[in-house]
Amino acid sequence: MSENENELAWREIPCVEFNLIQAVFQTTACFSSLSLVVSFVLFMRAYIYPPSFTSSLHHLSATSPPSLTTMAFTFIFCFIPPFLFIFLFHSLLLHFFKPNRPKLPLPPGTMGWPYIGETFHLYSQNPNVFFASKQKRYGSIFKTHILGCPCVMISSPDAAKFVLVTKSHLFKPTFPASKERMLGKQAIFFNQGPYHAKLRKLVLRAFMPDSIKNIVPNIESIAKHSLHSLQGRLITTFQEMKTYTFNVALLSIFQKDDQVLYREDLKRCYYILEKGYNSMPINLPGTLFNKSMKARKEIAQILAKIISTRRQTKQVDCNDLLGSFMSDKEGLTDEQIADNVISVIFAARDTTASVLTWIIKYLGENPSVLQAVSEEQEAIMRGKEEQELSWEDTKKMPLTSRVIQETLRVASILSFTFREAVEDVEYEGYLIPKGWKVLPLFRNIHHSPEIFPDPQKFDPSRFEVAPKPNTFMPFGSGTHSCPGNELAKLEIMVLLHHLTTKYRWSMVGSNSGIQYGPFALPQNGLPIRLVKK
Ligand code: HEM
């Protein structure tokens, strides 16, 4: 569909306001026609048949023509009211709804083939090339059609703020049905309003600095153990980082004892479950989806056991996510807890593992930055009696923090997020129709040369100055922004501390490619060889 066909598209789109006007007009027309028919019948009856139905028309009959006064009287009472009714009602409608006001155009862009839209165009290449070329051609707001949905993509900081923060109530989160069934429809991602606010409060309570500072020693022990088990081997970085971030996620959700007891079972079930995330939602024996749903049930049973043990042993105030869910006064049901525990694992694991994989790649490619990070990390331990990291130590890592920020910017592992307009929305003179998907393109913002000069270059020093508001959103923004961002940064720092002070690594094979699955990742998950220093 071309830009010039916007007007046509406008007529095709579902629009609440015009549907309403149509409905009201049709109702009025029905009533008016009915009144006219009734009036006509009354009038005719008054002349043709003997009067029997009203006392006022008592003397009228077909054989004795009525007087002029009677005719005028009948006309005024039978014909004028319906006409007045029609006239007044239509004037009111025109006044309030103004159907002839200038119609808003859709954003520029093309919609591709019917139903398929531009899906192949998007996925036959690096998706970021698609987004960047569209932005170059149409500007920071454009329309397209992917995965069976008409979409509006936005790539300016102001537009992202509009959708995610200031007008977030006009845009609801939206996910494929299979994902919703896998994670559970009561999970934090899929909800809005008071239930979402309550969940958010509980999740944030478990992941705020005051809560996670207590688990630094446990995270450190997981990091040390992971790195130790990898030394001397050729490893796929992403796979190994997933194991690390999975273990940290379990630690933050359950107390240490719970997770040690059930870790292997939870891991086994979760690994089956995740295989079904992007499968067709066909629940027949043998399908990936079916296996995933069974694994999901098993996770819920394990959780029910943990919850029941905690209730029996009166451990309801634990400082972890499960404790936060269980201590809620109004109480979450076991099902709500299961949906949200599974969702947090989903949100926490691959994201953080992808970022760690990119950091290892960028540090490997930038020896001077790696050298500076190693020195910063060694300095923390110098002069310390106990060789364990503390929460305070993690606050003495400014360069490491900038490396994490710059990696989050360059890699932009979540290139965009999805929302859906809950009503027709006007933005900068364009119409975003109800039901259309809206995609804030984080990656385009992070790669804008006006905001971040020489955007492809890995340069942590650019974060010596804080970025302008809404220009850096690796953890999203607004009501659904990432509540786990402090934990993610903490576990990355702890792992980097041990990696840079005790190990060396070399990348194996070609490392220039990027794969998407769905997060952006170095080709083949970045194979490396890790050795002790
Ligand atoms: C570097 C790693 C991470 C990145 C880049 C990241 C990024 C994001 C982003 C961009 C969103 C917002 C999505 C949207 O607006 O649609 C989000 C939401 C979320 N993240 Fe993270 N995340 C990371 C790690 C974590 C961790 C470690 C946890 C939990 C421990 C977590 C839990 C969540 C949850 C529960 C949500 C949904 C919040 C809501 O809907 O209210 N994330 N994350």
Element layout with pairings:
Elements: H1 6-12, H2 16-48, H3 68-78, H4 80-97, H5 119-123, H6 127-138, E1 141-146, E2 149-154, H7 157-166, E3 171-173, H8 177-183, H9 193-207, H10 209-212, H11 216-230, E4 234-236, H12 237-253, H13 256-275, H14 288-312, H15 321-326, H16 334-365, H17 367-381, H18 398-411, E5 419-421, E6 425-427, E7 430-432, E8 437-440, H19 442-446, H20 485-502, E9 503-507, E10 514-516, E11 520-522, E12 527-532
Parallel strand pairs: 2-8
Antiparallel strand pairs: 1-2, 3-5, 4-12, 5-8, 6-7, 9-12, 10-11
Helix pairs in contact: 2-3, 2-4, 8-14, 11-12, 11-20, 12-13, 12-16, 13-14, 14-16, 16-18, 17-18, 17-20
The chain binds protoporphyrin IX containing FE.
The site of protoporphyrin IX containing FE has 27 residues, from helix 9, helix 12, helix 16 and helix 20.
Report on the architecture of this protein.
α17 packs across α20 (485-502). Helix content is 54%, strand content 9%. Mean pLDDT is 84; it is low at 1-23 and 48-65. It is built from 20 helices and 12 strands. A 5-stranded mixed sheet has the order 1-2-8-5-3. It has a 3-stranded antiparallel sheet with strand order 4-12-9. β10 (514-516) and β11 (520-522) form a beta hairpin. The protein has 533 residues and is of the alpha+beta class. It has a domain at 3-96. It is globular. Bound molecules: protoporphyrin IX containing FE. Protoporphyrin IX containing FE (HEM) is lined by residues 173, 188-189, 200, 203, 207, 249, 252, 344, 347-348, 351-352, 355, 413-414, 417, 474-476, 480-484, 487-488.
